[in-house]
Amino acid sequence: MRIIIGILAVILLAGCKEKYTPKLNNATTAYLVVEGFINSSGGASTFVLTRTTRLTDPGKIVYERGAMVKITSELGKVYPLTETSPGTYTSAALTLDKNDRYRLSIQAGGKEYLSDYSKMRNTPAIDSVSWQLENNGLQLYVNTHDPKDSTRYYQWKHEQTWEFHSSYTTSLKYSYDNQNNITGVTYRLPSRSADMSVYRCWQSEKLQSISIGSSEKLSKDVIHAPLIQIPKNSWKVSVLYSVLVKQYALSREAYKFFEEMKRNTEQLGSIFDAQPSANTGNLRCVTKPDEVVIGFVEVSEEKEKRLFISAAQLPADWAYVQPCEAIQVKPNNIDTIRSMAGYLPTDPVDYAPSGAIVTLGFGTPSCIDCTLRGTNVKPSFWP
Asked: Which domain of life is it from (predicted)?
């Protein structure tokens, strides 16, 4: 009976939800947030600097621009970083000494910020990136191991790229006068064939979620960790999908930091979730020691592996169907064509004996011109 009463109490507590709008004070925000790592693989190191914002500004990103950023070593070497885009700072390709230790130095807003010195961490190679169909989706996994059983803590970053096609081909386009008024339709190409430059496209996405894994509780340093789940019938796997996975070795302290960040940013939302914690990382403000700085900077090798998955490898019922509207109209005159201004022309349907177009097709723009949803520039790594 006590168990039943306890369960009922939990159900009642979970069900008694009432919207609450807190009164927010003007507490200090705009704390510096540092994202990135020092790359010891011979490549460039990239850091993104932002500032925290108020809860009343959801989705707002404030980049820290105009900062002076450099990597310094205990032995006195200095490697400057350049701002390559707002808030993003990148070094040249670095050759680092495994016997030295390194840290990040930032001057921003009239203050100096430093990370703790960090030694190089060796990162094992990725054994494979695998996938299987489960939970009505496609689940991707990363597989790795350290034969020395010394890594134990891992972080992954991944960038997805996929090829997709328009639902309809098009050989026609609008023609315009000098005032940008539609005057009719004309063929896109002299050959009057379909314009493939708006039919085949690519899209990319860098996932912002924190992906970490640990073999701390295992006898062997072996990892089989879930990374990404793609829902069934997604446009990502409509033609050809690829993911580039990058792997980094972490210290236990860095792992705990990212674990708490993941919990704080991704797993809050009910009274049963863990409450936010205040682990801010291994950076500090030298100018103002009590100022909060968020981030964890270490020196690590970067190992990567790419996977491709084609639509032909998936069941037939995984086919992606884009919601589109297709219309056939005639006669082919200026009034009819202007009435279709919210659509794009596709192809002629039938012709007069003279060869003039009598009936032509129109459709939803995003179903005809793939550049409205991606780029028609083929990635260099694409088969």
From this structure: Bacteria
